Amino acid sequence: MPYTIEKGREARSLWSSVWQSGFRCRCPRCGVGSLYQGIAKVRPACSHCGLDLAQEDAGDGPAPFLTMLVGVLVMPPALWYEFTFEPPVWHHALLWLPLILALTIGTLRPAKSLLIALQYRFKASEAEESFADDDEANEADQSGREQDGTNQP
Ligand SMILES: [Zn+2]
Fold first, then answer.
1. Which of 62, 85, 88, 91 is the most buried (most CB within 10 A)?
2. Domain coordinates of the chain in residue numbers?
């Protein structure tokens, strides 16, 4: 049974909204509009449905995940090659640097799209707004207490 979130959002299944939008680099709401306007720059708004994508931008979020993923994929063959053939260092540079660059650049857009789709689907931007509202309320409460001269909560 597909899992759906319907409150204020389009009722598409979790699979179609997150995975398809993520891997196809499309808008997380409509799944039609392109997410990027360059290599990895997110459009300010969806060209199809007008969703404000600036609020959904994952920024550098996928970088730590890609670093770990590429490391897990490249290290075993690099270690096997080193311990089996004991090649000079330039062999490693010639073999693994292009592979690391290709894997990183090739997976950057889908990983960023996947994070944006997850953020959109699970309302991460709204959570940030509510945390910001809580911080503002706490600061206003603190300044009110300081003006009263009381330090009691
Ligand atoms: Zn859209």
1. 62
2. 14-123
Task: Quote the ligand 1 centre to 119 CA distance (angstroms).
Answer: 15
Classify residue 116 as exposed, middle or buried by CB count within 10 Å of its CB (0-12, 13-18, 19+).
buried
Residue closest to 53 by CA, chosen among 69, 64, 37: 37
pLDDT tens track for 35-84: 999 888 899 999 998 888 888 777 788 888 899 999 999 999 999 999 99
- The residues placing their C-beta within 5 Å of ligand 1, an ion, are 27, 29-30, 33, 46, 48-49, 51
- Per-residue pLDDT band for 123 (boundaries 50, 70, 90) equals confident
pLDDT at 73: 95
Task: List the beta strands (DSSP E) in the chain.
Answer: none
